[in-house]
Amino acid sequence: MQKREKLLKEEVKKLLDKKQVDMVIGYEKGTLALRTTPCFLASVDDVDRLVWNEFCENNLAKYLPGRKEKVAIVAKGCDVRSIVGLIQERQITREQIFIVGIPCEGIIDRRKIESRLGEKEILEATCENGKILLRGEDFQEILKKGDFLYDSCKVCKYRNPIVFDLLIGDRVPELEKIDEYAEVRKFEAESPDERWLHFQKEISKCIRCYACRSACPLCYCEQCFVDQSQPRWIGITDNPSDVGVFHLFRVFHVAGRCVDCGACSRACPMNIDHRWLLKKMEKDVKELFGYEAGLSVEEVPPLATFKEEDPQDFIK
Ligand code: SF4
Ligand code: SF4
Ligand code: SF4
């Protein structure tokens, strides 16, 4: 990791020095252990702030829509797929973005670590050679990285960026023999009533803070349907029907676009698991249209197009 971070800094310095880009979006050290934070660099003098490590969890593609300048962005495999989505949807142009791709071996789920350590306050966290080293005032603990990865990282099929202008370091091996839909199949095996209960139970914790929406690179509408008053699509209460409509609309909105980056689940303060429903939608889109999101800038996502021979028997 340190080697990749060093390389990253060297390459970003060159980009800014030669004025190939106006700005670089990357990660810097967070104020808390286990955290990094997005940073926006416009000067070579700032480049030493950049970091790359297993705590770089944000999907920085979130900061691209609406930009006018030439931007370099540090992007993992899943982030690159979101960038591809934004290009397909004309939110940015390919020419405007310089993708600094980073092969990624998975990001550490800080909530799993925090729940393992309970009340202990972690003051410093590092990760090297598959081991996470945690230090507090009166303790030190070493954990196995593989046990604390995000669930999306455990079944990631695109750890190496598929599109990039510059790749930082060597490619990493892609995961083999992963079963990414094991949980979805369990959900599909439930009866309709059980599925509805499952859904209601999960979303009953939602406080409608919209952090999930704010973290998703594909939620860029100037006005979200939840905020519209003319027409008003849903009420602004936290009663189960309003909350349910928000979640169902959101899942349909990202159908065929979601890249399973996990940013929405990470942002949720109530620990709501968004993934099972998003993965169900991803599986349906794959089975119905043979399409996976964010793999080619030339492709048109299935829900953004139509064919004359598409079945129309649902229109009566
Ligand atoms: S989903 Fe894949 S590319 Fe994205 S952070 Fe996890 S391992 Fe890396
Ligand atoms: S819906 Fe969630 S997992 Fe999917 S692209 Fe948006 S933030 Fe990532
Ligand atoms: S982040 Fe969590 S609590 Fe907030 S609106 Fe989304 S699901 Fe609900």
Summarize the structure.
The chain is an alpha/beta fold and 316 residues long.
Describe this structure in words.
With 316 residues, the chain is α/β, with parallel strands linked by helices. The protein folds into two domains: 262 residues, no CATH class; 41 residues. The chain has ten helices and eight strands. The strands form two sheets. The protein has a five-stranded mixed beta sheet. Helix 5 packs across helix 10. The longest helix is centred in the N-terminal third of the chain and has 16 residues. The chain is globular and about 60 Å long. 30% of the residues are buried. Bound molecules: iron/sulfur cluster (3 copies).
Helix and strand arrangement:
Layout: H1 2-17, E1 23-29, E2 36-41, E3 71-75, H2 77-88, E4 97-101, H3 110-117, E5 124-128, E6 131-135, E7 140-144, H4 151-154, E8 166-167, H5 182-189, H6 192-203, H7 211-215, H8 240-253, H9 263-267, H10 275-289
Helix pairs in contact: 5-10
The structure holds iron/sulfur cluster (3 copies).
Rg: 21 Å
Q: For the report, how would you describe the main beta sheet?
A: 5 strands, mixed
Which structural class do you get from the secondary structure elements? alpha/beta
Strand content: 5-15%
Give start-end ranges of low-pLDDT stretches.
none
> Approximately how much helix is present in the residues?
25-40%
What are the bound molecules? iron/sulfur cluster
The geometry reads as: globular
Q: What's the count of strands?
A: 8
The largest beta-sheet arranges its strands as 2-1-3-4-8
Order of helices and strands: HEEEHEHEEEHEHHHHHH
What is the distance, rounded to the nearest whole angstrom, between the alpha carbons of the first and last residues?
58 Å
Number of helices: 10
Number of domains: 2
Average per-residue pLDDT, rounded, comes to: 94
